[in-house]
Amino acid sequence: MKRFLRFAKTTLIGGLVVITPVALLLMVLWEVVQLVSGIIDPVVAMLPVTTIAGVNVTAIVALLCVLGLCFAAGLAALTGAGATLGKWAEARLIRLPGYKMFKAYTRAMTGSQAQQLQPALLANPMDAQVLAFIIEEGETHCVVLVPNAPAVMAGSVQHVPKERVTKLNISLAEASQVLSEYGMGAMPMFEDQSYRLSSTVPSI
After folding, report:
1. What percent of the chain shows pLDDT beyond 70?
2. How far from chain centre, in Å, is Cα 189?
3. With the CA atoms of 32, 36, 39 and 43 taken in that order, what torsion angle do they form, in degrees rounded to the nearest 10?
4. 3-state DSSP call for residue 27?
5. Under 8 Å CB-to-CB from 78, ≥6 apart: which residues?
6. Which residues make beta-bridge pairs with 143?
7. Tens digits of per-residue pLDDT, 126-171?
8. What value does the CA radius of gyration of the chain take, rounded to a whole number of Å?
9. Which residues of 13-51 are buried (b: 16+ CB within 10 A; e: fewer)?
10. What is the pLDDT of residues 32-50, one digit of tens each?
11. How far apart are alpha carbons 187 and 98 in whole angstroms?
12. Of 34, 107, 127, 186, which has the fewest CB atoms closer than 10 Å, so is most exposed?
C-alpha cells in the first residue's frame, strides 16, 4: 500500500510539474484569442460563412491572428530590442515552478536543444541499467534525472561519474514514449548496441 501511495504521489507531482506551465500557457492563449475575437468580430461578420467544420469562423480567424502575432514576435526577438524584451519576460516566467524544465523539454522535443535532456542508460551498483536523462555535464560527473514511469519529468536527480552513463541514439520523444508505456518497447535500447552513441558521456 505504501509503495502504491508513493508511486501515486510521485506520478501526480510529476504530472503537475509538466501540466502547470502548459495550462498557464493555454489559459493565456485562450484569453488572447477571446480578446482578438472581440476586436475582429465586426469584420468577420461580413464573411459569407459563419462556421468551418462546425467551428466558429471568428475563433479560427482570431487563432490565426494570434499565431501570426506569435510569428511576428519571434522575428522581433531576433532583433536587439526584441531579445531584450524576451529576456525581461523570461526573467519573470522563470519564477514559475517547472518553467525551466518545461522550456528545456520543449526545446529538446523540437530538436533545438540537443545538449540537455539527452536520453541515456545509467549503470547502477546493482549491476542493472536504467533509462535516464542527462540534465547537465561536467568534466568527470554529470547530473541525470531517473524518471519514474510513466511520469517522464518526475523522478530522482543523481550526480554520477560519467563512466556509468551511456548516451542513447534516440530522440527525447522516443524515450518519453517508452516511459509513458511503462517500458514497453525499451528492450532494444538496453540490448542493441546500435542504439548507443558512446560508452561514456563526452565532455562539452
Report:
1. 63
2. 21
3. -170
4. helix
5. none
6. 136, 159
7. 778 999 999 888 889 999 989 888 777 778 889 999 999 999 988 8
8. 22
9. ebeebbeebeeeeeeeeeebbeebbeeeeeebeeeeeee
10. 777 777 777 777 777 777 7
11. 30
12. 127
Give the single-character DSSP code of 54.
T
> What is the b/e burial string over 92-130, where b = at least 16 CB atoms within 10 angstroms of the residue's CB?
eeeeeebbebbbbbbbbeeeebeebbbbbbbeeeeeebb
More confident residue, 125 or 204: 125
Query: Binning pLDDT at 50, 70 and 90, where does residue 87 land?
Result: low
Domains with residue ranges and CATH for the chain? 2-97 (no CATH), 118-195 (2.30.30.360)
Which residues on neighbouring strands pair with residue 83, listed in sequence order? none
pLDDT at 191 over 70: yes
Residue 204 has a pLDDT of: 36
Residue 98: pLDDT band by 50, 70, 90 thresholds?
A: low
Q: Which residues pair with 142 in a beta bridge?
A: 137, 160
Q: Is residue 94 predicted with pLDDT exceeding 80?
A: no
Instruction: Please tell me the distance from the alpha carbon of residue 69 to that of residue 178, in angstroms, as a whole number.
Output: 36
Map grid coordinates 518545461 to a residue.
102
Q: What is the rounded distance in angstroms from the CA atom of residue 160 to the CA atom of residue 153?
A: 19
Q: Which three cell numbers stand for residue 112?
A: 533545438
